[in-house]
Amino acid sequence: MLSNSPNHYDELIYLVYETHRQRKEDYHTKLQIRQQFYDILDDELNVAFDLFVVGSTQTQFSLRSSDMDLCMLVYDHHGHIDQRYRQNKSITIDLLQSIKNIITKRLCSKNEINLLMNAKVPILKIVTEFNYYRIAVDININGDLSIRNTFLLTYYQELDNRVAPLVVAIKSWARKMRIDSPFYGMLSSYSLSLMAIHFLQNIQPPVLPLMHIDDLNDQSVFDQIVNTGRLQEHLCIFIGETRKKFHSYNYSQLGELFFRFIEYYYQRFHYHNQFSIRELFKNQSSSNNIGTFFIMIEDPFHYHNTASSVTISSFNTIMNAFGRTYYSMKSSTFTEQFFDL
């Protein structure tokens, strides 16, 4: 338990959440922007497609300043996800270039557009404005992994109303500590979310259960779910089945959970183990797909390390951030200065 914990720790975490959380009007505006892009592209593209809102915008783990991620699924003439865009990077880039040209022509005065062709997954980055609401939007082609990741995080967010406030507070803290940029060898937003879920599964008693995701790992089953438009229905089924089997007997408040998250990754977690939300612990030496890294956070679908960018220098910076926060909370000197407010 958090010794000498002032009551304002709970209030502080709620303050961070209320400051940063995505408002309903933010979400609805993002959906309108998505619809605007869809209508424009549907008029001019000669392919069958759909646009999915993915990432933190959909999971409710988004900070108000966060980008919106869109996944365009392109279908073949049978109505299945077109495998060519998974196998051939050049035709993906060609399609993104066409999208760039269309949006530039139709919304030229409102957008800044860049095509990142050399990224591992080519992305079209758009800074757009809609009714005086300015936002950055990233579009990928057939990045179905992002849809599955979004499904998974939304599932966990729906199971317990403490999950979203805790994750948003962790992201705000990580931004303030400057440990939230993979470009500089730090942690991605997705990695931080997985760390939070892993912690909530391992705390005693657990707040969240392990998830059996065989259906989502089976490409043909997943494609069928997406093709038939049954993602939301499937999510509701998963949540309903889980609630029949699992009930959390952990009633800790947010301040306590935030402290125990910091304590867990500073003092208790053994970094020779791999973070996994499919199983409680996985030893590094037993994994053939991860390799040797300073922090190993398993993507639950592709099994690669989502923290592969972390170096020895950035690992030390991350651990220093956990240490400073831990000792500040232990000594009751923890304040809003530890968050990006």
From TrEMBL:
GO terms for molecular function: poly(A) RNA polymerase activity. This is Poly(A)RNA polymerase GLD2 isoform X2. It comes from Psoroptes ovis (Sheep scab mite). SUPFAM superfamilies: Nucleotidyltransferase (SSF81301), PAP/OAS1 substrate-binding domain (SSF81631). Residues 12-157 form the Poly(A) RNA polymerase mitochondrial-like central palm domain. One of its GO terms (biological process) is RNA 3'-end processing. Coiled coil: none annotated. It holds the Pfam family MTPAP-like_central.
